[in-house]
Amino acid sequence: MSPRWTPDPDVRRGRSVVHNLHAHLVFTTKYRRGALTDPILTRCGQIMAEVCHDFGAELREFNGEDDHVHLLVHYPPSVALSRLVNSLKGVSSRHLRREFTEHLRKYLWDEHLWTPSYFAGSCGGAPLTMVKEYIEDQKHPGP
C-alpha cells in the first residue's frame, strides 16, 4: 500500500497553471520618519489585506516598526508584482492619511506616506517559516 499523498495548501491551481508564489515586501515611510504607531500599523495591515484580496492574492504575514512595514504575500502569476505594490502603497497611503490626518501631518510634509522605492524578495529559496518568523519578530504585534 502506497503512502497517502496530501496536497500542499500553498500550491494553487488555475485552468492552465499550478503555482506557489510568495514575495517578501518592505515599504519604508517617506523621510524614514517614525510615523507609524501601533493603531496605524494595525489599520495598515487591514487595508493591505483587502488590497491583496482584490488582486486574488493573500496577505500571509504583516508587521512593522515605526518607519517601515514587512509583508509576506501569496499571489497568482496573473498579477504583476509591481502593480500589486503600487496599489498596496497608494491605497494604504490614501486611507491612512485620511484616517490619521493629525498624527501623520506631524511627520510627513507632503501627500506621500511611502518612499517611491521598495524591497521585493522571492521567498522560493528560504523556507517560508523562516520568513514568517522574521516578520513576526518585528516590533508591532500585528492585526
Automatic annotation (TrEMBL):
GO biological process, alphabetically ordered: DNA transposition
InterPro entries cross-referenced by the UniProt entry: Transposase_17, Transposase_17_sf
Annotated ranges, domain Transposase IS200-like: 18-138
Source species: Micromonospora viridifaciens
GO molecular function, one term: DNA binding
This protein's name: Putative transposase
Alphabetized Pfam families for the sequence: Y1_Tnp
SUPFAM superfamilies in UniProt: Transposase IS200-like
